[in-house]
Amino acid sequence: MLTTFAVTALVMIMVPGPDQALITRNALAFGRTAGLLTMFGGLIGLTVHATAAAVGLSALLLTSATAFTALKVVGVVYLLWLGVQSLRAGRRTAATTAAAPEAGPDSAPDSGPERCSPLQHIRNGLLSNVLNPKVALFFVTFLPQFLPTHGNTLGRALLLSAIFAGLYLLWFSLYNVVVARIGALLRTPRVRARIEQVTGVLLVGFAIRLAWQQP
Questions:
Q1: Which of 58, 75, 62, 211 is nearest to 143 (CA)?
Q2: CA 179, 128, 126, 8 torsion: positive or negative?
Q3: Domain that holds residue 159
C-alpha cells in the first residue's frame, strides 16, 4: 500500500501548479538558491496542510463553507497578485531589452528583475500553499484512502504525510537543479521576459481555477 501511495503521490506532485511556476520563475531569474528557498517555503506550507489533515483540522475547515470561502478568496487574491507582479516584471524586462539598442555602448547593463531577499522567496512558496484550499482538499480526500479502518490512524496519517513531503522535496530539488543548470541558456533578457510573462499568465490561470473550486 505504501508503494501505491508513493507512486500516486509522486505523479500528483509532478502535475504543474503554482509551486512549479514559482520555482521555475525564481530559479531562472535569481538562481538555484532562490529556487530551493521557494521550494522550501512550499514544503512548509505543504507540511502545514498535511499535518492539519492528519489531525482532522482540514476536514473541520472544509465542513465550514464560510471558512473555506474565506481561505479561497485570500488564496485567489494572492495568486493574482503574484501573477500581476510577474507580468509587470516581464513587461519591464521586455521594455528594457527593446530600448537597449538605442542606449548605446555606454549604457548600464540590464539589471533584470528586482532582487528579493531569501525570506521573500520562502514566503512566496509558503503562502502559495498555505493559502490554497485545494491543497487541504487534496489531503482530506487523498490520505483517507490509504488509512486503516482501525488502529493507529493518526500515526499512519502522519507517516503518509511525511512520505508525501519527502517526495515533494526530492522531486523539486532535482527539478530545481535542472532548471538552474539550463538557466544560463534561458536567462537572456528576451527569454527572461517571456518566462516572466508565461509565469504570470499561469498564476492568473491558477487563481481563476481556484476561484471555481468548491468545498
A1: 58
A2: negative
A3: 18-96+114-211
**47, 161 contact by CB (below 8 A):** yes
Q: How confident is the model over 176-195, as pLDDT tens digits?
A: 888 877 766 666 677 777 77
Has residue 191 been placed in a domain?
yes
**Cβ neighbours of residue 77 under 8 Å, at least 6 residues apart?**
207
In a domain, 9, yes or no: no
pLDDT of 188 reads 67
The dihedrals phi and psi of 116, each to the nearest 5 degrees, come to -120, 150
Average pLDDT over residues 52-73: 75
Encode 26-44 in three state secondary structure.
Answer: HHHHHCHHHHHHHHHHHHH
Question: Measuring CA to CA, which residue among 46, 54, 62, 60 is closest to residue 146?
Answer: 54
Grid cell 540590464 in the structure block, residue: 110
Nearest to 8 by CA among 142, 129, 125, 119: 142
DSSP state of 132: -
Q: How many domains does the chain have?
A: 1
Q: Look at the pTM and tell me if it is higher than 0.90.
A: no
Residue 185 lies in a domain: yes
Tell me if 5 is assigned to some domain: no
Q: pLDDT for 144-153, tens place per residue?
A: 778 776 767 7
Nearest one of 208, 34, 214, 193 to 125, comparing CA atoms: 34
The arithmetic mean of pLDDT across residues 20-40, rounded, is 87
